[in-house]
Automatic annotation (TrEMBL):
Cited SUPFAM superfamilies: BRCT domain
Residue spans of biased composition, Low complexity class: 481-506
SMART domains: BRCT (SM00292)
Pfam families recorded: BRCT, PTCB-BRCT, RTT107_BRCT_5
Name this protein carries in UniProt: Regulator of Ty1 Transposition
Domain of life: Eukaryota
Basic and acidic residues bias spans: 457-474, 560-586
Length: 829
């Protein structure tokens, strides 16, 4: 819903009708004030004490609440009723127009919803990025320092806005931009304490002390899906519950609880104005253990509330309604493992208390084995930070190291997520990620797509048949090192077994013919489909094995210019109109929907037209595709690169290695505005200012790139400290695009291949003898320098200590830069 101007002279709310959800933060005083403001400006409050009063959603335009935890939340969204916080009313009145409702949504997934930020001494590009990120995650951005601001983003305390905060003793937090960066990378709001000026912890000299965990309310009462009888909450000394009022609850037989416990629960419900029923057709709440069975299937089809025993206990303890989707282990668990997780051995590190218990139970629920200790046979280590012996051992043993979000989101979406996703391997240096455990919600759409109406069929279908559906997913999502090899080889074996023994695959369910039995014509067709699918899978497996064995693993799409299936970069002919287009311009506007109509593979970096506008971005990308321009996400796939100017983003830097045609982002806007595929003449990127700033001539760099053929650093041995400024993964991607891989250096002795026989030991010009360490110039990294030099010299190699700028400048200019101005001195160690 876009912002609207005053729709009527009778008041901005004259076309609106409201319901108010009462809660602890929204008590009588707040509700009374809201009612007065709404009525004063022409609105009508239909219900002012929900959920105590019934709600007719069709009569409402807005629901005012501080939480999304009320029974009709999802139904309201389905009927396009706007659910907003009380601040939405205040903001609308202040501006005399209806404020944008998304900025005031109580949905916890919009984790910046309580943040209003302004930037102080930041460059314009950084301000735009922060503003876009905050808006996308439900927060607000202000260019000025107003009373509504909660956070001032600054690099130091020496600027006017921060001085104003100090002078007037304003209740605002002054933080480094790093805080927003880490929050957006994780998709969670972490504590801003370590990022707070004037003395931010993250800027202090790194030490060996691990970040301490913080109390976590999100897993309290939600650490297990099926509590035992001993944890039954008591009503002794308490008033009767209100949470079960008008609830008709069915306790399913799959709970397998004793009759004594069942009687106690029935009594609690009955004495609290609820009703216990025996048939799901009469119920509006189902309590069950598993996502299967007749009652579960009917309940999900009816779209009534479905939760498990832990959820029921939570309602009893708090006497406050909460959605069973909000906490992962409050919703019934699947009866079978998530495809791809069966057989994985996962260990935990640096999580404690209920957060650890929650993750242990979640790992079991997802179908993997949770081990107390870490051994070489483990496939994954889930850790809250990277300062631990377990992490060091895992990295030495080539075990995938991820944070808990990988487990949570795989479970929430019921699909194995790729461990190479940057969100799952990001560890803020001064944050213990245990503080954000349990914030992930069950994906309601996943429930509807994968369990509702199909659950009973899944129970009745042999497990061996269902497991065949996961083979391709397991290849893409499992660990990129040792466990990838196991997953790939296992997939091959499963593929052979499945093709020989099982008539059904996921394609059967997708066609709507899940109940066909063996021996029917449909079953024969399913076998053929399965065989064809597995034939396709064998090609994917072969490509995966080829990429996995390449030095550095599968990074940045994993393709080289010489690979058969890679789109060749720098082909100018791809931008030229066809002969038919030249004779008939109208043909340029015709929809292009098949792969043969693609005339340009475009990589985009730094385009501001889509900042904070996800919907517009999706629509524009679709339109570009119809015009013959396929927007790609990896430099190896691009024939063209579009950017507003010369950038030093990872995407831009890596793309240069493939020598694409570099265009201004004006080209994108021109094609969209004219609704046709345009010639690129006149749209080549020209940026003299940044060429001078970075000491690069773009035309020359692209010519060098063509000659280099992604081999600029080929044969160069480069090590890099793990906490390098800019990020190890970023530099790794740039190095990969230029023909080498970075090896993380942690101060341990490693064998460096000796120089080639016959090469001159004292020749500094002989690059084959050289070995480089990319390092920060700080105390922590300096301690590593003598060890690295000794290690190199023992291998008869010539060591060089360099700052990251050497690699970045060389990559941007596409020529190896002289070492002198980038060297670090061992004397400073």
């Amino acid at each position: 819903m876009a912002e609207e101007t005053n729709p009527s002279k009778d008041g901005i709310f004259s076309q609106s009708s409201f319901a108010i959800v009462r809660s602890d933060p929204l008590g009588d005083a707040v509700a009374t004030e809201l009612i007065q403001q709404i009525e004063l400006h022409g609105g009508e409050v239909v219900v002012d004490n929900y959920p105590a009063e019934r709600l007719n959603l069709e009569s409402l335009t807005h629901i005012i609440t501080t939480t999304f935890d009320f029974p009709d939340y999802y139904d309201a969204l389905d009927l396009f009723v706007q659910v907003v916080k009380p601040a939405w009313v205040t903001a609308s009145v202040a501006t005399d127009k209806l404020a944008h409702p998304r900025k005031y949504s109580p949905d916890p997934k919009l984790f910046m919803s309580d943040v209003v930020a302004t930037c102080a001494d930041l460059p314009l590009g950084d301000k735009d990025a922060i503003a876009g990120g905050i808006l996308a995650m439900g927060g607000n951005y202000s260019s000025k320092l107003t009373s509504q601001v909660t956070h001032v983003v600054a690099l130091s305390m020496d600027n006017d806005k921060v001085e104003q905060v100090k002078r007037n003793n304003l209740n605002m937090t002054v933080v480094l931009p790093h805080w927003f960066d880490d929050c957006l990378k994780l998709g969670k709001k972490i504590d801003e304490g370590p990022y707070t000026l004037p003395d931010p912890e993250i800027m202090q000299t790194p030490g060996g002390k691990a970040p301490l965990g913080r109390p976590n309310k999100h897993v309290v009462g939600a650490a297990t899906s099926h509590p035992d009888d001993g944890t039954l909450p008591s009503l002794s000394g308490r008033k009767s519950l209100a949470v079960f009022k008008k609830k008709r609850i069915l306790l399913d037989e799959d709970l397998k609880i004793s009759q004594t416990l069942r009687n106690v629960l029935n009594g609690m419900i009955l004495t609290s104005n609820g009703k216990v029923v025996d048939n799901v057709s009469e119920a509006n709440v189902l309590i069950c253990k598993y996502r299967c069975g007749e009652n579960y299937t009917k309940a999900t089809a009816k779209k009534i509330d479905v939760g498990n025993l832990a959820w029921l206990y939570y309602l009893i303890v708090h006497d406050l309604w909460t959605s069973p989707y909000r906490r992962l282990l409050h919703y019934p668990i699947p009866k079978e493992p998530l495809p791809g997780f069966d057989g994985l051995k996962i260990s935990l590190s640096n999580y404690s208390g209920e957060a650890r218990t929650f993750l242990e139970n979640l790992i079991i629920a997802i179908g993997a084995e949770c081990t107390k200790t870490l051994k070489q046979e483990n496939t994954h280590l889930v850790t809250a930070h990277k300062k631990s012996e377990k992490v060091a051992a895992a990295e030495d043993w080539n075990i995938a190291v991820v944070n808990h979000l990988w487990i949570e989101e795989s479970y929430a979406k019921w699909e194995m997520q790729n461990v190479t996703n940057s969100r799952y391997i990001h560890f803020p240096t001064k944050t213990n990620l245990g503080e954000v455990v349990g914030q992930t919600q069950i994906d309601k759409k996943v429930i509807e797509q994968k369990f509702s109406g199909q659950a009973q069929h899944e129970v009745d279908t042999p497990r061996s048949v269902r497991k065949g559906q996961a083979d391709a997913k397991a290849l893409d999502a499992s660990t990129p090192a040792k466990s990838n090899a196991r997953s790939a080889s296992t997939a091959k074996a499963k593929a052979q077994t499945t093709s020989a023994q099982t008539p059904a695959t996921s394609r059967v369910a997708a066609s709507g013919k899940e109940n066909l039995t063996p021996g029917t014509a449909g079953s024969r067709k399913s076998k053929d489909a399965a065989t064809a699918k597995l034939h396709d899978l064998s090609t994917d497996i072969a490509l995966f094995e080829k990429e996995r064995k390449r030095v550095g693993g599968v990074v940045y799409g994993g393709r080289r210019k010489g690979d058969e299936d890679r789109v060749d970069g720098g082909r100018k002919r791809s931008a030229e109109p066809t002969e038919a287009d030249a004779t008939d311009k109208k043909q340029a506007k015709r929809p292009r929907t098949d792969s043969t109509s693609v005339q340009m593979h475009l990589l985009i970096s730094g385009y501001k037209g889509w900042v904070g506008k996800a919907k517009k971005e999706d629509e524009d990308i679709k339109r570009l595709r119809e015009l013959g321009i396929a927007v790609v996400d990896h430099p190896s796939k691009a024939t063209h690169l579009a950017a507003p100017n010369i950038l030093r983003t990872p995407k831009f830097m890596a793309a240069i290695a493939y020598a694409p045609i570099v265009l201004s982002t004006d080209y994108i806007e021109a094609c969209l505005n004219q609704d046709e595929f345009l010639d690129t003449d006149g749209y080549q990127l020209a940026d003299k200012a940044n060429e001078k700033k970075h000491g690069v001539v773009l035309k020359k760099a692209l010519e060098n790139a063509k000659a280099n053929k992604q081999q600029l650093f080929s044969g160069t041995t480069i090590y890099c400290t793990e906490k390098i400024v800019g990020g190890f993964e970023t530099l790794q991607a740039i190095a990969e695009a230029n023909g080498t891989t970075l090896t993380p250096y942690r101060g341990r002795h490693m064998a460096i291949p000796s120089r080639r026989a016959g090469s001159g030991a004292d020749s500094e010009d002989h690059a084959d003898n050289d070995v480089y360490l990319i390092s920060n110039d700080n105390e922590e990294d300096r301690r590593l320098w003598p060890k690295f030099v000794k290690m190199a010299e023992e291998s008869r190699r010539t060591p060089y200590l360099l700052i990251a700028e050497w690699l970045l400048s060389s990559a941007l200019r596409q020529e190896i830069q002289p070492l002198s101005q980038y060297r670090l001195s061992l004397a400073n160690a």
